[in-house]
Design brief:
With about 600 residues, the protein is an alpha+beta fold. It has two domains: about 95-230, Penicillin-binding protein 2a (Domain 2) (Alpha-Beta Complex); about 240-575, Beta-lactamase (3-Layer(aba) Sandwich). It is about 35% helix and about 20% strand. The protein contains 17 helices and 16 strands. Strands 1, 2, 3, 4 and 7 form a five-stranded mixed beta sheet that branches. Strand 1 (about 95) and strand 2 (about 100-115) form a beta hairpin. Helix 3 (about 120-130) runs antiparallel to helix 4 (about 135-145).
């Protein structure tokens, strides 16, 4: 920038020549310079104000647009972002097939102590001992005065207990919010649900984790916040489950049984409608596992899934169905049933002498061991193993329970001819009642394999074909005849055509051999027999009927009547209408108008 001098020499000389005042020239030049400076400052200020105004306009525009977006959006609760690794305490509910609650959450509090903040440790210890009988006042006082800064007292307390502790009035006794798992139906479906406990714990929350059953099998799903609390729906029917457990418990008591189990399964979908194991427990206060002795003696042992047993004559229908499917026999083929049957040093006998020969149907109806063994020899060892494997009897079931992998069938390593014969009538191969339910469902549903599931399904399973529909129909008729005129007549329920097969298996001793006065009795029931919908497996451990002159230990006197009563109770609950035969009209004649 070129600055104009305040006293230009040419103008000063000219002013002196004309007698003008040279100072006036300097004053005029100063005034013009100041005017130019003022103009520049004004323009600069106006530019800044313009920029500031544009900025304010843009800011208010952004705010207005944001307010409009918020006003047009769906309102939702604000969420705070947690840092670190938070404890997830929320757990989804578990429902039965009709939406009734089997497991839910209950808000409660934990109790802990901070001894440095206590005013009167002695009074606090005495007060807590009076509220909680399991606590010892002297031990509490020693903990409160021993230099500890933190002490858990109770993981969860009731509202009444919380008020009583609050009334003690000591600032060192503190409460933390806590969620506990609640099973409102108590013991009902205890083995299916399993139970839950606490994982990671803090003073303000605790991690609820599954420890058994579906609670453990679906622990990740039940705890996943991404599911937004969506409940887990099971295939169980709560009313049916309660009825099955009540009848089973009554039968177990009347028949002096050591234990019992029952499995009710849909033959088309594989859904387990009911699963019971006795003795049972309350999942609200799940007992600890046994540290020594037989695990089966514990009430938390699920006999329907974990218990593997030689189930006896209920296996005979598998042998007969395979032989018919392979074209080796028909329902009317005559089989040699001469007893005893000798095979090397081994002898196979029937419970009664049924004569020298029976038809294949009567081999099943009268439950002939010798007849079934001779049919099995026609089948052969390799073919028998393959058939049983395709029925799912050689591997653990895939049901969605944490205990399922432990229910592994016990299979003979050396499958000789004698093993082939004994396996044909349920000895030599040990499997669980759930295995048996799935295998029976496959035999009677038309011949396609189903896998048991504890989750609700809305459609039938499309499994591999094991036997033809024609063989399945023949097997269903044989099972029906067992109830009509065979070993399971006590299972007849008026209005419902029941079929089934009994199984009376000697219990093995831990040291080898078999007990003479202990049986594992099983009845595998199918109903309605003409168009099967459900399979019911009822098993009693060491039952005895003492109502007669002599003790009766066979399945026909023990497991069969219990299963019949279960069907009588649950069939209406399942929506099955009884088929009542219309009486014949006598003395009535038709006339034409």
């Amino acid at each position: 920038m070129i600055r104009t001098p305040l006293r230009p020499l040419a103008r000063i000389i000219k002013a002196r020549q004309t007698g003008a005042n040279p100072d006036a020239i300097e004053a005029e030049n100063k005034r013009e310079r100041h005017a130019q400076m003022a103009d520049r400052a004004r323009r600069r200020a106006e530019g800044r104000l313009l920029v500031l105004g544009v900025c304010f306009l843009l800011a208010y525009g952004v705010i207005g647009i944001r307010m409009g977006t918020i006003a047009a959006s769906v309102p939702e609760e604000p969420r705070t972002a947690d840092v670190g690794n938070p404890i997830i305490s929320q757990r989804a509910d578990i429902l039965d097939r009709d939406g009734r609650i089997l497991a839910t959450n209950f808000e409660t509090h934990s109790l802990y102590a901070q001894p440095p903040q206590m005013v009167d440790p002695r009074a606090a210890a005495d007060g807590l001992a009076a509220i909680f009988p399991e606590m010892d006042a002297e031990e509490l006082f020693a903990d409160f005065t021993g230099g500890r800064k933190f002490l858990w007292l109770r993981r969860q307390i009731s509202p009444e207990q919380m008020q009583a502790v609050f009334d003690i009035g000591d600032p060192g006794l503190l409460f933390g919010p806590r969620e506990m798992r609640l099973y409102p139906n108590g013991r009902v479906a205890a083995h299916v649900l399993g139970g839950a406990g606490y994982g990671r714990e803090g003073v303000n929350s605790a991690e609820v984790i599954g420890v058994a059953g579906v609670e453990r099998a679906f622990d990740d799903y039940l705890r996943d916040p991404a599911n937004d609390g969506a409940p887990l729906q099971l295939s169980l029917d709560l009313t049916v489950q309660a009825a099955v457990e009540r009848v089973l418990e009554g039968g177990m008591s009347l028949l002096n049984a050591r234990a019992a189990s029952a499995v009710l399964m849909d033959v088309h979908t594989g859904e387990v409608i009911s699963m019971a194991s006795l003795p049972d427990f309350d999942p609200n206060s799940r007992p600890r596992p046994l540290l020594e002795g037989d695990p089966a003696d514990s009430p938390i042992f699920n006999r329907a899934v974990q218990g593997v047993y030689e189930l006896g004559s209920v296996f005979k229908i598998f042998t007969v169905a395979q032989a018919i499917e392979n074209g080796l026999v028909s329902a009317d083929t005559i089989i040699d049933t001469t007893t005893p049957m000798r095979w090397g040093p081994h002898r196979i006998s029937d419970y009664r002498n049924y004569g020298p020969e029976l038809s294949v149907t009567d081999v099943v109806v009268k439950s002939s061991n010798t007849g079934t063994a001779r049919i099995a020899l026609q089948i052969g060892a390799d073919a028998q193993q393959d058939f049983l494997a395709r029925l799912g009897l050689m591997e653990p079931t895939r049901i969605e329970l944490a205990e399922a992998p432990t229910g592994r069938p016990l299979v003979q390593k050396n499958w000789s001819d004698i093993v082939t014969m004994t396996t044909s009538y349920g000895h030599g191969l040990s499997s669980s009642p759930l295995h048996l339910a799935a295998a029976y469902a496959t035999i009677v549903n038309g011949g396609t394999r189903v896998e048991p599931t504890i989750l609700r399904r809305n459609s039938a399973q499309i499994g591999p074909r094991i036997i033809s529909p024609e063989t399945s129909a023949i097997a269903r008729e044989m099972l029906r005849q067992v109830v009509v005129r065979g070993t399971a007549t006590f299972a007849e329920v008026e209005g419902y055509a029941v079929g089934g097969k009994t199984g009376t298996a000697d219990k093995p001793k831990p040291t080898g051999g078999y007990y003479e006065d202990r049986n594992l009795n099983t009845f595998a029931a199918v109903f309605p027999a003409d168009q099967p919908r459900y399979v019911l497996i009822t098993t009693l451990d060491s039952p005895v009927d003492t109502a007669g002159e002599e003790p009766r230990r066979t399945a026909g006197w023990t497991a069969v009547p219990v299963a019949g009563e279960i069907i009588r109770r649950v069939a209406p609950l399942l929506g099955l209408r009884p088929q009542i035969a219309q009486p014949a009209l006598t003395g009535v004649s038709l006339t034409a108008n």
